[in-house]
Amino acid sequence: MNKISIIGAGNGGLTAAYHLSKLGHSICLYDSPQFDTQIQAVNKQGGIKALSKDHGAEMMFPGFEEITHATTDIKKAMEFAEMIIMICPSFAQELLFEQMLPHLQDGQVVFIMPGNYGGLVLNRMKNESDQKDKDITFVDGISIPWATRIVEPGVLTIMGLKEFLSVSIFPSENATDEVKQLITESLPVPVEFLDNPIVAGLENINFGGHPLLTTLNMGLLENFDGDFNYYRDCCSPATANAAAKMDQERLAVGAALGFSLRTELQAMNALYGSNYKSVYDFNRDSTTHGKINSAPNSSKNRYVTEDVPYLLVPCFELAQAVGIRVPIVESCIHIASAYNDTDYFKTGRTLKDMGITAEELKNLTS
Question: Which residue intervals define the domain Glycerol-3-phosphate dehydrogenase NAD-dependent N-terminal in the entry (predicted)?
């Protein structure tokens, strides 16, 4: 099996370390010294525990798994493996990659979950550093495979598992059979390979459901401290209709770039093996997402602070590049910016951050 380093020990990182170890891979789990709570817990108990039940609901893949290494030494994590999986908030991707840069090795695969155009950003950073000659492959996943959360240090619950994971490989010439096999062997679900990281960013399933529903429901979410089932309680016929209109804007951007993207409903049904007739029905009735009452309780939640600047802003920038309007996307960015006194149009992930000029965008999408 493979030697894999997981960079980031939050909900997704801890779950990746647990599940990939359960599949027989040798795992090194890393997090920064200032965020070492999970690393300390894993080392103290000798591994990671997954519960069989939480809040009375049955959970997936319960048990206990030993982890080969859990460390705050980035050099050790980078030297351990050929496959590096980054699972962290998008705003932390550049910060962590700065730590990783001095230790990059030729032939390494840096797999970012979710990518949110991160492969393009990190490739630009590599090319602007003294590591520019290193042959590194960047993989952007549209999400993580699991619906999961940490319940206490070193202990988690896995509520659901996607049917497959869509990923892109960049640079495209690195999409060899060997790299594809490494990716496929390392994940707990089948892999769908997309054309490029622009498609992967636009296919992120969180695009509509998270930022728009959160901004539309912010008064109730804050006043009732997020004491809801997010998907069931924050999706109404009207908000689902607004989300569908914003999804049409995303699809229009994809079409203008030459991509045939899945609708949000098609993506949800495909990823979770369901057959709902509408996004409203999915959010109201999904057994995976209905197991635990949990919702954002402020505008500082990642559904706003990550999904607006790293999903909506790139879509807005791409729309501008191809000359079409996306008024609901733009409005959602304005509202989120007002909530948090932050100009996400400036601080979000731009084409410049990705190192993409108009000519390079044409090459990526041709």
Answer: 3-111
